[in-house]
Amino acid sequence: MADADRTVIANRAKQSKMKRRRGVVLTHAGLQRLQAAIATAEMVENNGNRFTLEELGDRIRVSTKTLSRLWSLSSGLDRRTIHLCFSAFGLDLQPSDYVVVGDLVESDAGMDADDAQPQPSPNAADSPPAPADSPPLAPQGDSAPSVTSLPPTAAPVASPHSGELRSAPSVNLTPGLMALPYPDGPVPLDSPFYIDRPPIEALAYQEISQPGCVIRIRAPRGMGKTSLTLRLLTVAEAQGFRTVTLDCNQFDSALLDDLGKFLRSFCLRLAQALNLPPKLDDYWDEEIGSKLSCSFYLKTYLLKQIDAPVVLVLNEIDRFFEHPAFSQDFFPLLRSWYEESRRDASLQKLRLVVVYSTEEYVALDINRSPFNIGLPLRLPEFTPAQVLDLAQRHGLSWGPDEVEQLIELVGGHPALVRVALYHLCTYGLSLPQLVEEAIATGGIFRPHLWRHWVTMQPYPELLAALEEVVQADRSIVLNPLQSYRLESQGLLCYEGDSRSDPCGNRVVSRCRLYQQYFRQQFASRSSSS
Known about the structure:
Layout: H1 3-16, E1 20-26, H2 28-45, H3 53-60, H4 64-72, H5 79-87, E2 98-105, E3 111-112, E4 115-118, E5 156-158, E6 165-167, H6 200-207, E7 214-218, H7 225-238, E8 242-247, H8 259-273, H9 280-283, H10 290-305, E9 310-315, H11 324-340, E10 350-356, E11 375-378, H12 384-393, H13 400-410, H14 414-426, H15 431-441, H16 446-456, H17 460-471, E12 476-477, H18 480-488, E13 492-494, E14 506-509, H19 512-528
Parallel strand pairs: 7-10, 7-11, 8-9, 9-10
Antiparallel strand pairs: 1-2, 3-4, 5-6, 12-14, 13-14
Helix pairs in contact: 2-7, 8-10, 12-13, 13-15, 15-19, 17-18, 17-19
């Protein structure tokens, strides 16, 4: 080959050689922030349905191949690409969201220097894209593990010498452990640890748009009622609705002994929450009674002043069951608003959400009760697939065996599952160690178990029924009212047997943890007496 030819070939190779520069990858904290923002957008804009990679790519204006590299936390991308991903969901890119990882082939970022449109990547074969319909966050049902499965370490960082990725320990924690918020109370809106339970979320989001609707959310404590309610309110506010949340535990007991005083206080709180002057005396007439005055005030004043629908959440309404006389008047009033909304345009603006654990403490005429109207939502336990999903969101490389061990211990109880995963990730407990300690003494679940035990002490007939359940080695039949009350507290579950028990009244302890702990408590009580 002539020297001139070699020179031409060399020049062409030099011209075609791709420019290389430093690339970045998301940190664990950055990925969590982005995941939470995407989940919020899915909830508000897409009725809780996951965006596909193609939908995300169109929104962010990058290719699905680029997104696949983004989720991997191992392939360097152009910083501008990362910035686009964050800004597409209203986030500012922070220094803690990414780290530099060495040389990057510029075209691998899928971005042209002057154009934000996706560009083909010459090295696309090096990182095949996920299927176009695979979710960017977590799978639904029994689908494959989440594409965002992470090791239980902090963000990957670059070695100063080799440029290769290594794992850095979380700040102020033993290496290999995660810095997680303690799972106490509702799951925050920006948390990646909220698990959908289809079709519940979609049904709630759809129903709240119906005029005059009532949504009843019932489940024992710790099952996610408040977490769902927070997301329902976010969807309502995104549609321009006004929202008011009243915690029934905040009403003074003295008010629950005087219906008139309670209803005035109730209306005052509604007005304050809607930023309206109360003007109670202008609409209140003691001669027609407090219930009619309350309804008149609601229809002709509050709802008339608001152009948008009003979502009213009555949280922890169980509190009112402790006052039977009050309940006999107030609950039928709620039902009357629902029924009257069928012909009253003002009341159609009212959307009522009732959140509670049990309803058996008060006997109401079936035609006057608000607990047999509207959309009923019962929050079930997590399925094995949902427990696996949540474990992987915590960075645990679990399979069916680990999921089975945890479910056998605590069932699919959302609060208990999250507490277990928190301790596994934060304190470095092994799953066998956690299970062993829980069975022996209650372990990390002792505060939860002790609260149940103390709550049951004023009800000797329920304690006797609970003892019968936990001492049995198989399902048994209890008095229906006792079964209902214990199930409402989350202590047992029904196990229908169509051959011997057509009504499905056979019950068992909800999980091994409850059975073992309460057996020990009853044994200790017997020995001390």
